[in-house]
Amino acid sequence: MLAMNYRGPYRVRAQQRPMPEIQHPEDAIVRVTRTCICGSDLHLYHGMVPDTRVGQTFGHEFVGIVEEVGPLVTNVKVGDHVLVPFNIACGKCNFCKQGLYGNCHESNPMATAVGGIFGYSHTAGGFDGGQAEYVRVPYANVGPTVIPADMDPDDAVMLTDVVPTGYQAAEMGGIKEGDTVVIFGAGPIGIMAARCAWFFGPSRVIVIDHIDYRLEFAKNYAKCEVYNFKSLEDPVVFLKKTTDWYGADVCIDCVGCEAEGNTLQTLTGRVGLLQAGAGTALQWAINSVKKGGIVSIVGVYGPPFNLIPIGNVLNKGITIRANQASVKRLLPRLIEHVQSGRLKPSELITHRIPLEEVADAYNIFSSKLDNCIKTVLIPSSK
Amino acid sequence: MENQITDYKSIPGWGMDADPDNEPTYPMKNYTGDDHNRINYERSVQQPVTVEILKSNERPTVSAVFGTSVPPSGLSGAIRRWAFKHSEDRYRHWLPLILADRINVYEGIIDDIKKGHFPNILAERGFKATLKHNPKKIIRQVITGVVAVMVIKSMFKSNK
Ligand SMILES: NC(=O)c1ccc[n+]([C@@H]2O[C@H](COP(=O)([O-])OP(=O)(O)OC[C@H]3O[C@@H](n4cnc5c(N)ncnc54)[C@H](O)[C@@H]3O)[C@@H](O)[C@H]2O)c1
Ligand SMILES: [Zn+2]
Ligand SMILES: [Zn+2]
Protein backbone atom coordinates (compact mmCIF):
# COMPACT_ATOMS: atom_id res chain seq x y z
CA MET A 1 0.00 0.00 0.00
CA LEU A 2 1.04 3.60 -0.53
CA ALA A 3 2.00 5.64 2.53
CA MET A 4 3.72 8.85 3.47
CA ASN A 5 7.29 8.15 4.59
CA TYR A 6 9.46 10.51 6.67
CA ARG A 7 13.09 10.73 5.46
CA GLY A 8 14.43 13.58 7.59
CA PRO A 9 13.74 17.25 8.28
CA TYR A 10 11.87 18.82 5.32
CA ARG A 11 12.02 15.49 3.43
CA VAL A 12 9.03 13.20 2.95
CA ARG A 13 7.78 10.99 0.14
CA ALA A 14 5.02 8.59 -0.74
CA GLN A 15 6.18 5.00 -1.03
CA GLN A 16 4.95 1.44 -0.85
CA ARG A 17 5.04 -0.33 2.50
CA PRO A 18 3.48 -3.52 3.90
CA MET A 19 -0.18 -3.47 4.86
CA PRO A 20 -0.81 -2.87 8.56
CA GLU A 21 -1.91 -5.90 10.56
CA ILE A 22 -4.09 -6.52 13.59
CA GLN A 23 -1.63 -6.69 16.50
CA HIS A 24 -4.05 -6.62 19.42
CA PRO A 25 -7.58 -8.05 19.76
CA GLU A 26 -9.07 -4.54 20.06
CA ASP A 27 -7.42 -3.31 16.81
CA ALA A 28 -9.14 -2.41 13.58
CA ILE A 29 -7.68 -1.79 10.14
CA VAL A 30 -9.16 1.25 8.40
CA ARG A 31 -8.96 2.11 4.70
CA VAL A 32 -8.32 5.83 4.70
CA THR A 33 -10.60 7.99 2.54
CA ARG A 34 -9.29 11.42 3.61
CA THR A 35 -6.44 12.56 5.81
CA CYS A 36 -5.17 16.02 6.71
CA ILE A 37 -1.79 17.59 7.33
CA CYS A 38 -1.79 19.42 10.65
CA GLY A 39 0.33 22.18 12.19
CA SER A 40 1.44 19.47 14.61
CA ASP A 41 2.86 17.48 11.68
CA LEU A 42 5.00 20.50 10.86
CA HIS A 43 6.83 20.14 14.20
CA LEU A 44 7.78 16.61 13.09
CA TYR A 45 8.51 17.70 9.52
CA HIS A 46 10.87 20.40 10.79
CA GLY A 47 12.73 17.92 13.02
CA MET A 48 11.60 19.57 16.27
CA VAL A 49 10.24 16.47 18.05
CA PRO A 50 12.80 14.09 19.59
CA ASP A 51 12.66 10.41 18.53
CA THR A 52 11.13 11.04 15.12
CA ARG A 53 12.52 8.05 13.24
CA VAL A 54 13.20 7.88 9.53
CA GLY A 55 10.67 5.58 7.87
CA GLN A 56 7.64 6.45 10.00
CA THR A 57 4.31 7.33 8.43
CA PHE A 58 2.73 10.47 9.90
CA GLY A 59 -0.93 11.46 10.02
CA HIS A 60 -3.32 11.73 12.95
CA GLU A 61 -6.33 13.29 11.23
CA PHE A 62 -8.18 10.76 9.10
CA VAL A 63 -11.50 9.18 8.27
CA GLY A 64 -12.01 5.87 6.50
CA ILE A 65 -13.80 2.59 6.10
CA VAL A 66 -13.33 -0.26 8.56
CA GLU A 67 -11.72 -3.12 6.63
CA GLU A 68 -10.97 -5.63 9.35
CA VAL A 69 -11.58 -5.89 13.10
CA GLY A 70 -9.89 -7.82 15.91
CA PRO A 71 -11.84 -10.46 17.91
CA LEU A 72 -12.73 -8.08 20.78
CA VAL A 73 -14.03 -5.22 18.64
CA THR A 74 -17.79 -4.75 19.08
CA ASN A 75 -18.45 -1.03 18.59
CA VAL A 76 -17.66 -0.79 14.88
CA LYS A 77 -17.98 -3.32 12.09
CA VAL A 78 -16.44 -3.92 8.69
CA GLY A 79 -17.81 -1.41 6.19
CA ASP A 80 -18.51 1.39 8.69
CA HIS A 81 -17.30 4.84 7.61
CA VAL A 82 -15.63 6.18 10.75
CA LEU A 83 -13.86 9.27 11.96
CA VAL A 84 -10.94 8.49 14.23
CA PRO A 85 -9.88 10.85 17.06
CA PHE A 86 -6.19 11.66 16.94
CA ASN A 87 -5.63 10.42 20.52
CA ILE A 88 -5.21 6.68 21.04
CA ALA A 89 -7.18 5.96 24.22
CA CYS A 90 -7.96 2.72 26.04
CA GLY A 91 -11.14 3.92 27.72
CA LYS A 92 -10.24 1.97 30.87
CA CYS A 93 -7.39 3.72 32.65
CA ASN A 94 -8.17 6.30 35.31
CA PHE A 95 -7.32 9.11 32.92
CA CYS A 96 -9.64 7.92 30.17
CA LYS A 97 -12.38 7.19 32.72
CA GLN A 98 -12.28 10.81 33.82
CA GLY A 99 -12.57 12.09 30.26
CA LEU A 100 -8.88 12.76 29.75
CA TYR A 101 -8.71 10.78 26.51
CA GLY A 102 -5.69 12.78 25.42
CA ASN A 103 -3.76 11.49 28.43
CA CYS A 104 -4.33 7.74 28.22
CA HIS A 105 -1.81 5.70 30.22
CA GLU A 106 -2.07 2.56 28.09
CA SER A 107 -1.15 3.75 24.62
CA ASN A 108 2.44 4.96 24.87
CA PRO A 109 5.28 3.08 26.57
CA MET A 110 7.91 5.54 25.37
CA ALA A 111 6.91 8.58 27.40
CA THR A 112 4.67 9.17 30.39
CA ALA A 113 4.10 12.85 29.65
CA VAL A 114 2.05 12.24 26.51
CA GLY A 115 -0.51 9.67 25.44
CA GLY A 116 -0.38 7.73 22.19
CA ILE A 117 -1.04 9.72 19.01
CA PHE A 118 -1.28 8.28 15.50
CA GLY A 119 1.83 8.91 13.40
CA TYR A 120 3.46 11.26 15.85
CA SER A 121 7.05 10.12 16.48
CA HIS A 122 8.09 7.48 18.97
CA THR A 123 7.76 10.01 21.76
CA ALA A 124 4.00 9.64 21.22
CA GLY A 125 3.98 5.86 20.96
CA GLY A 126 5.63 4.93 17.66
CA PHE A 127 2.38 4.32 15.76
CA ASP A 128 2.22 4.60 11.99
CA GLY A 129 -0.28 7.25 11.02
CA GLY A 130 -3.13 7.75 8.63
CA GLN A 131 -1.38 9.50 5.73
CA ALA A 132 -1.59 6.15 3.99
CA GLU A 133 -4.05 3.93 2.20
CA TYR A 134 -4.54 1.80 5.32
CA VAL A 135 -3.87 2.31 9.02
CA ARG A 136 -3.94 0.22 12.18
CA VAL A 137 -6.37 1.71 14.71
CA PRO A 138 -5.87 0.39 18.27
CA TYR A 139 -8.69 0.41 20.85
CA ALA A 140 -11.29 0.41 18.08
CA ASN A 141 -14.10 0.17 20.66
CA VAL A 142 -13.17 3.57 22.04
CA GLY A 143 -12.00 6.06 19.40
CA PRO A 144 -13.60 5.37 16.01
CA THR A 145 -17.02 6.96 15.65
CA VAL A 146 -19.40 6.19 12.80
CA ILE A 147 -19.87 9.30 10.64
CA PRO A 148 -23.55 10.31 10.69
CA ALA A 149 -25.20 9.60 7.34
CA ASP A 150 -25.93 13.25 6.63
CA MET A 151 -22.42 14.48 7.40
CA ASP A 152 -19.93 15.54 4.73
CA PRO A 153 -16.73 13.47 5.18
CA ASP A 154 -14.78 16.75 4.83
CA ASP A 155 -16.52 18.01 7.97
CA ALA A 156 -15.92 14.64 9.63
CA VAL A 157 -12.17 14.71 9.05
CA MET A 158 -12.05 18.14 10.70
CA LEU A 159 -13.74 16.60 13.76
CA THR A 160 -10.74 14.31 14.34
CA ASP A 161 -8.61 17.20 15.61
CA VAL A 162 -9.11 20.78 14.38
CA VAL A 163 -12.63 21.34 15.70
CA PRO A 164 -12.19 19.67 19.11
CA THR A 165 -8.83 21.36 19.62
CA GLY A 166 -10.15 24.80 18.71
CA TYR A 167 -13.22 24.22 20.86
CA GLN A 168 -11.27 22.96 23.85
CA ALA A 169 -8.88 25.90 23.54
CA ALA A 170 -11.87 28.19 24.04
CA GLU A 171 -13.47 25.96 26.67
CA MET A 172 -10.30 25.91 28.77
CA GLY A 173 -10.28 29.70 28.62
CA GLY A 174 -13.26 29.67 30.97
CA ILE A 175 -14.70 32.50 28.86
CA LYS A 176 -17.48 34.49 30.58
CA GLU A 177 -20.12 36.61 28.93
CA GLY A 178 -18.63 39.92 27.86
CA ASP A 179 -15.00 38.76 28.04
CA THR A 180 -12.28 39.87 25.65
CA VAL A 181 -10.48 36.84 24.24
CA VAL A 182 -7.14 37.07 22.45
CA ILE A 183 -6.02 34.19 20.28
CA PHE A 184 -2.43 33.88 19.10
CA GLY A 185 -2.10 32.08 15.76
CA ALA A 186 -4.35 32.16 12.68
CA GLY A 187 -3.64 28.64 11.52
CA PRO A 188 -6.54 26.16 11.35
CA ILE A 189 -6.45 25.76 15.15
CA GLY A 190 -6.47 29.48 15.91
CA ILE A 191 -9.22 30.14 13.37
CA MET A 192 -11.35 27.36 14.87
CA ALA A 193 -10.64 28.55 18.42
CA ALA A 194 -11.79 32.04 17.42
CA ARG A 195 -14.99 30.68 15.89
CA CYS A 196 -15.68 28.42 18.89
CA ALA A 197 -14.93 31.17 21.41
CA TRP A 198 -18.25 32.80 20.43
CA PHE A 199 -20.12 29.75 21.77
CA PHE A 200 -19.10 30.89 25.26
CA GLY A 201 -20.40 34.45 25.02
CA PRO A 202 -17.46 36.89 24.83
CA SER A 203 -17.88 40.43 23.54
CA ARG A 204 -14.57 40.60 21.65
CA VAL A 205 -12.47 37.96 19.92
CA ILE A 206 -9.07 39.13 18.67
CA VAL A 207 -6.71 37.04 16.54
CA ILE A 208 -2.99 37.82 16.19
CA ASP A 209 -0.67 36.43 13.48
CA HIS A 210 1.80 37.85 10.97
CA ILE A 211 0.47 36.31 7.78
CA ASP A 212 -2.08 38.59 6.16
CA TYR A 213 -3.95 36.02 4.09
CA ARG A 214 -4.54 33.92 7.21
CA LEU A 215 -5.73 36.92 9.21
CA GLU A 216 -8.11 37.80 6.38
CA PHE A 217 -9.44 34.24 6.40
CA ALA A 218 -9.87 34.31 10.19
CA LYS A 219 -11.74 37.60 10.02
CA ASN A 220 -14.22 36.24 7.49
CA TYR A 221 -14.64 32.76 8.91
CA ALA A 222 -14.66 33.55 12.62
CA LYS A 223 -16.08 37.08 12.51
CA CYS A 224 -13.30 38.37 14.73
CA GLU A 225 -10.89 41.32 14.94
CA VAL A 226 -7.47 40.57 13.48
CA TYR A 227 -4.07 42.21 13.85
CA ASN A 228 -0.73 41.56 12.21
CA PHE A 229 1.94 41.62 14.91
CA LYS A 230 4.56 42.72 12.37
CA SER A 231 2.69 46.00 12.07
CA LEU A 232 2.42 46.42 15.86
CA GLU A 233 5.44 47.87 17.54
CA ASP A 234 4.85 45.79 20.66
CA PRO A 235 1.93 43.34 20.66
CA VAL A 236 1.74 43.26 24.47
CA VAL A 237 1.43 47.04 24.79
CA PHE A 238 -1.09 47.05 21.95
CA LEU A 239 -3.25 44.46 23.71
CA LYS A 240 -3.05 46.33 27.01
CA LYS A 241 -4.10 49.52 25.28
CA THR A 242 -7.00 47.95 23.39
CA THR A 243 -8.36 46.50 26.66
CA ASP A 244 -8.39 49.91 28.40
CA TRP A 245 -4.95 49.26 29.87
CA TYR A 246 -6.31 46.25 31.76
CA GLY A 247 -5.22 43.13 29.87
CA ALA A 248 -7.36 40.56 28.08
CA ASP A 249 -9.62 38.36 30.16
CA VAL A 250 -8.46 35.24 28.36
CA CYS A 251 -5.43 34.56 26.14
CA ILE A 252 -5.14 31.43 24.02
CA ASP A 253 -1.91 30.06 22.53
CA CYS A 254 -2.64 28.38 19.19
CA VAL A 255 0.91 28.70 17.89
CA GLY A 256 3.19 26.36 19.81
CA CYS A 257 6.91 25.84 19.54
CA GLU A 258 7.56 27.33 16.11
CA ALA A 259 6.52 30.85 16.97
CA GLU A 260 8.09 33.87 15.37
CA GLY A 261 8.36 37.43 16.58
CA ASN A 262 11.06 37.37 19.27
CA THR A 263 14.70 37.09 18.27
CA LEU A 264 15.98 35.64 21.54
CA GLN A 265 13.22 33.01 21.62
CA THR A 266 13.85 32.15 17.96
CA LEU A 267 17.62 31.86 18.39
CA THR A 268 17.50 29.73 21.53
CA GLY A 269 14.45 27.71 20.56
CA ARG A 270 14.38 27.18 16.83
CA VAL A 271 18.00 27.69 15.76
CA GLY A 272 20.01 26.51 18.79
CA LEU A 273 17.45 24.01 20.14
CA LEU A 274 18.54 25.01 23.66
CA GLN A 275 14.86 25.03 24.56
CA ALA A 276 11.98 23.08 23.06
CA GLY A 277 11.17 25.62 20.37
CA ALA A 278 10.30 29.28 20.71
CA GLY A 279 7.88 30.25 23.49
CA THR A 280 7.07 33.66 21.98
CA ALA A 281 3.30 33.26 21.71
CA LEU A 282 3.03 31.86 25.23
CA GLN A 283 5.17 34.69 26.55
CA TRP A 284 2.88 37.22 24.86
CA ALA A 285 -0.20 35.41 26.21
CA ILE A 286 1.08 35.53 29.79
CA ASN A 287 2.12 39.14 29.50
CA SER A 288 -1.09 40.38 27.83
CA VAL A 289 -3.67 38.65 30.01
CA LYS A 290 -5.18 40.54 32.95
CA LYS A 291 -4.20 39.82 36.55
CA GLY A 292 -6.12 36.76 37.66
CA GLY A 293 -6.75 35.96 34.00
CA ILE A 294 -6.67 32.62 32.25
CA VAL A 295 -4.14 31.41 29.69
CA SER A 296 -5.23 28.43 27.64
CA ILE A 297 -2.55 26.51 25.74
CA VAL A 298 -3.15 24.12 22.87
CA GLY A 299 -0.06 25.08 20.86
CA VAL A 300 2.34 22.17 21.10
CA TYR A 301 5.71 22.36 22.84
CA GLY A 302 8.16 19.50 22.88
CA PRO A 303 10.28 18.23 25.72
CA PRO A 304 12.33 19.10 27.71
CA PHE A 305 11.40 22.73 28.56
CA ASN A 306 10.77 26.29 27.42
CA LEU A 307 11.75 29.74 28.60
CA ILE A 308 8.55 31.42 29.71
CA PRO A 309 7.98 34.20 32.25
CA ILE A 310 6.78 31.99 35.09
CA GLY A 311 7.42 34.80 37.57
CA ASN A 312 4.68 36.82 35.90
CA VAL A 313 2.35 33.84 36.10
CA LEU A 314 2.90 33.89 39.84
CA ASN A 315 2.76 37.64 40.40
CA LYS A 316 -0.31 38.12 38.21
CA GLY A 317 -2.10 35.11 39.67
CA ILE A 318 -2.67 33.62 36.27
CA THR A 319 -4.38 30.27 35.79
CA ILE A 320 -2.85 28.17 33.05
CA ARG A 321 -4.98 25.47 31.48
CA ALA A 322 -3.59 23.25 28.77
CA ASN A 323 -3.93 19.85 27.19
CA GLN A 324 -4.03 17.78 24.10
CA ALA A 325 -7.65 17.98 23.02
CA SER A 326 -9.84 15.22 24.41
CA VAL A 327 -11.53 14.52 21.10
CA LYS A 328 -13.85 11.73 22.22
CA ARG A 329 -15.20 13.73 25.15
CA LEU A 330 -16.15 16.64 22.90
CA LEU A 331 -17.46 14.76 19.86
CA PRO A 332 -21.16 14.51 20.83
CA ARG A 333 -21.48 18.29 21.32
CA LEU A 334 -19.40 19.12 18.25
CA ILE A 335 -21.29 16.74 15.98
CA GLU A 336 -24.42 18.66 17.06
CA HIS A 337 -22.82 21.99 16.19
CA VAL A 338 -21.87 20.68 12.74
CA GLN A 339 -25.19 18.96 12.03
CA SER A 340 -27.13 22.07 13.00
CA GLY A 341 -25.07 24.09 10.53
CA ARG A 342 -23.66 26.38 13.21
CA LEU A 343 -20.15 25.15 12.40
CA LYS A 344 -18.87 24.41 8.89
CA PRO A 345 -15.33 23.21 9.48
CA SER A 346 -14.81 21.94 5.92
CA GLU A 347 -14.69 25.59 4.80
CA LEU A 348 -11.14 25.68 6.16
CA ILE A 349 -9.99 23.18 3.54
CA THR A 350 -8.16 25.06 0.81
CA HIS A 351 -6.16 22.24 -0.79
CA ARG A 352 -6.95 18.69 -1.87
CA ILE A 353 -3.86 16.80 -2.98
CA PRO A 354 -3.36 13.14 -3.96
CA LEU A 355 -1.32 11.15 -1.42
CA GLU A 356 1.25 10.52 -4.18
CA GLU A 357 2.16 14.23 -4.03
CA VAL A 358 2.66 14.29 -0.27
CA ALA A 359 6.06 16.02 -0.54
CA ASP A 360 4.57 18.99 -2.36
CA ALA A 361 1.61 19.02 0.02
CA TYR A 362 3.89 19.31 3.06
CA ASN A 363 5.92 22.05 1.42
CA ILE A 364 2.80 24.05 0.52
CA PHE A 365 1.43 23.89 4.08
CA SER A 366 4.79 24.43 5.76
CA SER A 367 5.90 27.34 3.56
CA LYS A 368 2.37 28.83 3.57
CA LEU A 369 2.31 28.77 -0.24
CA ASP A 370 -0.75 29.41 -2.39
CA ASN A 371 -2.73 30.92 0.54
CA CYS A 372 -2.94 27.50 2.16
CA ILE A 373 -5.04 27.08 5.31
CA LYS A 374 -5.74 23.33 5.49
CA THR A 375 -4.66 20.51 3.23
CA VAL A 376 -6.44 17.20 2.71
CA LEU A 377 -4.58 14.25 1.22
CA ILE A 378 -6.62 11.79 -0.81
CA PRO A 379 -5.35 8.21 -1.14
CA SER A 380 -6.09 6.94 -4.62
CA SER A 381 -7.49 3.58 -3.51
CA LYS A 382 -10.54 5.51 -2.29
CA MET B 1 8.17 5.38 50.85
CA GLU B 2 9.46 4.39 54.31
CA ASN B 3 8.92 8.03 55.34
CA GLN B 4 5.29 7.96 54.33
CA ILE B 5 2.91 9.02 57.11
CA THR B 6 0.06 6.54 57.32
CA ASP B 7 -2.13 8.08 60.01
CA TYR B 8 -2.43 11.45 58.28
CA LYS B 9 -6.17 11.54 58.89
CA SER B 10 -5.49 12.11 62.58
CA ILE B 11 -3.73 15.41 61.87
CA PRO B 12 -5.92 18.15 63.39
CA GLY B 13 -8.16 19.66 60.73
CA TRP B 14 -7.35 17.05 58.09
CA GLY B 15 -9.77 17.46 55.15
CA MET B 16 -11.90 20.11 56.89
CA ASP B 17 -11.74 22.65 54.08
CA ALA B 18 -11.70 20.26 51.14
CA ASP B 19 -13.99 21.48 48.39
CA PRO B 20 -14.68 18.81 45.78
CA ASP B 21 -16.09 21.44 43.41
CA ASN B 22 -12.80 23.29 43.35
CA GLU B 23 -11.50 21.26 40.42
CA PRO B 24 -9.63 23.59 38.10
CA THR B 25 -9.28 20.99 35.39
CA TYR B 26 -13.08 20.61 35.00
CA PRO B 27 -14.67 20.36 32.39
CA MET B 28 -11.69 18.71 30.78
CA LYS B 29 -11.62 16.28 33.64
CA ASN B 30 -14.58 14.63 35.23
CA TYR B 31 -13.03 13.93 38.64
CA THR B 32 -14.05 10.55 40.03
CA GLY B 33 -11.53 10.06 42.80
CA ASP B 34 -10.10 7.05 40.97
CA ASP B 35 -6.76 8.84 40.75
CA HIS B 36 -6.05 7.44 44.19
CA ASN B 37 -6.33 3.89 42.85
CA ARG B 38 -3.27 4.79 40.78
CA ILE B 39 -2.54 2.30 38.01
CA ASN B 40 -4.81 -0.33 39.50
CA TYR B 41 -7.55 -0.25 36.91
CA GLU B 42 -8.86 -3.01 34.70
CA ARG B 43 -6.40 -3.10 31.85
CA SER B 44 -6.83 -4.24 28.25
CA VAL B 45 -4.95 -7.40 27.31
CA GLN B 46 -1.30 -6.90 26.52
CA GLN B 47 -0.23 -6.49 22.88
CA PRO B 48 2.59 -9.01 22.35
CA VAL B 49 5.99 -7.38 22.13
CA THR B 50 7.26 -8.53 18.73
CA VAL B 51 9.82 -5.78 18.08
CA GLU B 52 12.21 -3.90 20.33
CA ILE B 53 10.26 -1.27 22.29
CA LEU B 54 12.13 1.38 24.24
CA LYS B 55 10.24 2.03 27.45
CA SER B 56 10.27 5.17 29.56
CA ASN B 57 11.84 4.40 32.96
CA GLU B 58 9.03 6.40 34.54
CA ARG B 59 6.60 3.51 34.16
CA PRO B 60 6.87 -0.12 35.30
CA THR B 61 5.75 -1.91 32.13
CA VAL B 62 4.97 -1.15 28.50
CA SER B 63 1.45 0.13 27.82
CA ALA B 64 -1.22 -2.37 26.73
CA VAL B 65 -0.83 -1.22 23.12
CA PHE B 66 2.03 0.55 21.37
CA GLY B 67 3.29 1.32 17.89
CA THR B 68 5.80 -0.85 16.10
CA SER B 69 6.60 1.62 13.35
CA VAL B 70 10.40 1.79 13.28
CA PRO B 71 12.30 -0.33 15.83
CA PRO B 72 15.67 1.14 16.86
CA SER B 73 18.59 0.02 14.69
CA GLY B 74 22.14 0.95 13.78
CA LEU B 75 24.09 3.72 15.43
CA SER B 76 20.98 5.85 15.97
CA GLY B 77 19.35 2.87 17.66
CA ALA B 78 22.31 2.45 20.02
CA ILE B 79 22.06 6.12 20.98
CA ARG B 80 18.31 5.81 21.52
CA ARG B 81 18.81 2.79 23.80
CA TRP B 82 21.24 4.82 25.88
CA ALA B 83 18.87 7.78 25.99
CA PHE B 84 16.09 5.59 27.36
CA LYS B 85 18.21 4.73 30.40
CA HIS B 86 17.46 8.25 31.58
CA SER B 87 14.15 9.71 32.63
CA GLU B 88 12.03 12.17 30.69
CA ASP B 89 13.23 14.76 33.18
CA ARG B 90 16.79 14.70 31.86
CA TYR B 91 18.51 16.52 29.04
CA ARG B 92 20.50 13.33 28.57
CA HIS B 93 17.28 11.64 27.52
CA TRP B 94 16.12 14.20 24.94
CA LEU B 95 19.31 15.61 23.44
CA PRO B 96 20.72 12.20 22.45
CA LEU B 97 17.35 11.40 20.86
CA ILE B 98 17.64 14.49 18.67
CA LEU B 99 21.23 13.51 17.80
CA ALA B 100 19.97 10.03 16.93
CA ASP B 101 17.26 11.56 14.72
CA ARG B 102 19.92 13.46 12.73
CA ILE B 103 22.18 10.41 12.36
CA ASN B 104 19.12 8.42 11.35
CA VAL B 105 18.70 10.70 8.32
CA TYR B 106 22.08 9.56 6.94
CA GLU B 107 21.27 5.94 7.78
CA GLY B 108 18.09 6.44 5.77
CA ILE B 109 20.02 7.67 2.74
CA ILE B 110 22.49 4.76 2.97
CA ASP B 111 19.60 2.35 3.34
CA ASP B 112 17.91 3.82 0.25
CA ILE B 113 21.08 3.48 -1.82
CA LYS B 114 21.62 -0.09 -0.61
CA LYS B 115 18.14 -0.87 -1.91
CA GLY B 116 19.17 0.60 -5.27
CA HIS B 117 17.16 3.78 -4.85
CA PHE B 118 19.00 7.08 -4.88
CA PRO B 119 16.71 9.47 -2.99
CA ASN B 120 15.44 12.39 -5.04
CA ILE B 121 15.98 14.95 -2.31
CA LEU B 122 14.61 17.87 -4.33
CA ALA B 123 11.36 16.01 -4.93
CA GLU B 124 11.20 14.96 -1.27
CA ARG B 125 11.46 18.62 -0.29
CA GLY B 126 8.48 19.46 -2.48
CA PHE B 127 10.54 21.40 -5.04
CA LYS B 128 7.71 21.25 -7.59
CA ALA B 129 5.43 23.20 -5.25
CA THR B 130 8.07 25.87 -4.60
CA LEU B 131 8.68 26.18 -8.34
CA LYS B 132 4.99 26.63 -8.97
CA HIS B 133 4.00 28.89 -6.07
CA ASN B 134 7.19 30.67 -5.02
CA PRO B 135 9.67 30.74 -7.95
CA LYS B 136 11.21 33.92 -6.49
CA LYS B 137 12.53 31.85 -3.59
CA ILE B 138 14.40 29.58 -5.99
CA ILE B 139 15.83 32.54 -7.89
CA ARG B 140 16.93 34.05 -4.56
CA GLN B 141 18.55 30.78 -3.50
CA VAL B 142 20.36 30.40 -6.82
CA ILE B 143 21.66 33.99 -6.66
CA THR B 144 22.78 33.55 -3.02
CA GLY B 145 24.53 30.32 -3.99
CA VAL B 146 26.33 31.89 -6.97
CA VAL B 147 27.40 34.92 -4.91
CA ALA B 148 28.66 32.64 -2.11
CA VAL B 149 30.72 30.59 -4.56
CA MET B 150 32.18 33.77 -6.11
CA VAL B 151 33.10 35.20 -2.70
CA ILE B 152 34.80 31.96 -1.64
CA LYS B 153 36.68 31.78 -4.96
CA SER B 154 37.91 35.37 -4.68
CA MET B 155 39.01 34.72 -1.07
CA PHE B 156 41.10 31.79 -2.25
CA LYS B 157 42.63 33.89 -5.03
CA SER B 158 43.56 36.76 -2.73
CA ASN B 159 45.15 34.28 -0.31
CA LYS B 160 47.57 33.04 -2.96
N1 LIG C 1 -3.40 20.52 21.82
C1 LIG C 1 -3.84 19.85 20.78
O1 LIG C 1 -4.60 18.92 20.94
C2 LIG C 1 -3.44 20.25 19.40
C3 LIG C 1 -4.08 19.70 18.29
C4 LIG C 1 -3.75 20.17 17.03
C5 LIG C 1 -2.77 21.12 16.87
N2 LIG C 1 -2.13 21.61 17.97
C6 LIG C 1 -1.08 22.63 17.87
O2 LIG C 1 -1.67 23.89 17.63
C7 LIG C 1 -0.72 24.72 16.96
C8 LIG C 1 -1.35 25.35 15.74
O3 LIG C 1 -1.73 24.37 14.79
P1 LIG C 1 -2.13 24.81 13.31
O4 LIG C 1 -2.52 23.59 12.58
O5 LIG C 1 -3.06 25.94 13.34
O6 LIG C 1 -0.66 25.26 12.80
P2 LIG C 1 -0.13 26.37 11.76
O7 LIG C 1 1.33 26.19 11.71
O8 LIG C 1 -0.90 26.27 10.49
O9 LIG C 1 -0.49 27.77 12.45
C9 LIG C 1 0.33 28.45 13.34
C10 LIG C 1 0.17 29.94 13.08
O10 LIG C 1 0.84 30.69 14.09
C11 LIG C 1 1.39 31.84 13.49
N3 LIG C 1 2.39 32.44 14.37
C12 LIG C 1 3.74 32.22 14.44
N4 LIG C 1 4.29 32.93 15.44
C13 LIG C 1 3.27 33.63 16.03
C14 LIG C 1 3.20 34.52 17.13
N5 LIG C 1 4.30 34.82 17.84
N6 LIG C 1 2.00 35.07 17.44
C15 LIG C 1 0.88 34.76 16.74
N7 LIG C 1 0.88 33.89 15.70
C16 LIG C 1 2.07 33.33 15.35
C17 LIG C 1 1.90 31.31 12.17
O11 LIG C 1 2.10 32.37 11.24
C18 LIG C 1 0.78 30.37 11.74
O12 LIG C 1 -0.19 31.00 10.97
C19 LIG C 1 0.46 23.82 16.64
O13 LIG C 1 1.46 23.97 17.63
C20 LIG C 1 -0.12 22.45 16.73
O14 LIG C 1 0.85 21.47 17.05
C21 LIG C 1 -2.45 21.19 19.22
ZN1 LIG D 1 -3.68 17.66 14.12
ZN1 LIG E 1 -6.63 5.10 28.86
From TrEMBL, chain A:
Database matches in PANTHER family: DEHYDROGENASE, ZINC-CONTAINING, PUTATIVE (AFU_ORTHOLOGUE AFUA_2G02810)-RELATED, ZINC-TYPE ALCOHOL DEHYDROGENASE-LIKE
Keywords for this entry?
Metal-binding, Oxidoreductase, Zinc
Q: Which family does it belong to?
A: Belongs to the zinc-containing alcohol dehydrogenase family.
The name of this protein is: Glutathione-dependent formaldehyde dehydrogenase
Cofactor needs: Zn(2+)
Species, as recorded: Mucilaginibacter hurinus
Where does the record place the Alcohol dehydrogenase-like C-terminal domain? 188-258
PROSITE patterns for this protein:
ADH_ZINC
TrEMBL record, chain B:
In terms of superkingdom, the source organism counts as Bacteria
Q: What is this protein called?
A: Uncharacterized protein
